[in-house]
Specification:
Helix content is 64%, strand content 14%. By secondary structure, the chain is an alpha+beta fold. The longest helix is centred in the N-terminal third of the chain and has 20 residues, at 2-21.
Length: 177
C-alpha cells in the first residue's frame, strides 16, 4: 500500500495545487471521488487489466464519467492513463483529501512587536501569512519593547525576524567574521 501512496502523492499534490489555483477544490474532490468509485468497480478493473491502449482506456473512463468531469478532469484522466496509473486514482483521491484537510486547518502565527499593532498592520500581516502558508491564519499578537522596533513572526519552524534587535544581532555577527 505504501508503494501506491508513493505513486499517488505527486498526482494528488499536482491536482490539489491546480484546484487551489483555480479555486475549485470542492469540484476536484467531487471529480476524484467519482472517478475513484468508477475505477474501483469490478467491471472497470477488469477492463483496465485487459486493454493496453492508454488512449482507449482514458476515453472509456471519460465516457463512463460523462458530465462528472470537466476538461481539466479529463486531461488528468488522460495523463494518468498515459502513465499507466489509472488504478492508482483511489489512492490519489485519498492523498488529495489529506491535502484538503491540511489546507483547511488554521495556522497559529505568533507576532511579537515592539509596539502594539494597529488593525491595518494586523490585516496586512494576516493576508501575507495566509498567502505564504496557503491556509487560514490566527494571529497571536504580543508586545516586547526589547525588540526596539519592528516585528518577529513565528509559526511552527518558520521565522521572520524584522526587528531592529534582530538586524543589530545579524550585523554584529557579520562584523565578527
Amino acid at each position: 500500500m505504501s508503494e501506491l501512496t508513493t505513486i499517488a502523492r505527486p498526482y494528488a499534490k499536482a491536482a490539489f495545487d491546480f484546484a487551489i489555483e483555480k479555486s475549485a477544490v470542492e469540484k476536484w474532490a467531487e471529480m476524484l471521488s467519482f472517478v475513484s468509485a468508477v475505477i474501483e468497480n469490478e467491471t472497470v478493473k477488469t477492463l483496465l487489466n485487459s486493454v493496453s491502449s492508454a488512449q482507449k482506456l482514458a476515453d472509456t473512463v471519460i465516457s463512463i464519467c460523462g458530465e462528472q468531469l470537466d476538461q481539466y478532469g479529463q486531461n488528468f484522466i488522460r495523463l494518468m492513463a498515459e502513465n499507466k496509473r489509472l488504478s492508482a486514482i483511489p489512492a490519489v483521491f485519498n492523498e488529495f483529501k489529506h491535502y484538503v484537510e491540511d489546507h483547511q486547518a488554521i495556522a497559529e502565527v505568533n507576532v511579537v512587536s515592539a509596539q502594539p499593532l494597529n488593525v491595518a498592520q494586523i490585516e496586512k500581516i494576516t493576508a501575507a501569512m495566509e498567502k505564504r502558508l496557503a491556509r487560514k491564519v490566527k494571529l497571536n499578537c504580543n508586545v516586547d519593547s526589547s525588540l526596539i522596533a519592528g516585528v518577529v513572526i513565528r509559526t511552527e519552524d518558520f521565522v521572520i525576524d524584522g526587528s531592529s534587535r534582530g538586524q543589530l544581532t545579524r550585523l554584529a555577527n557579520e562584523l565578527q567574521l
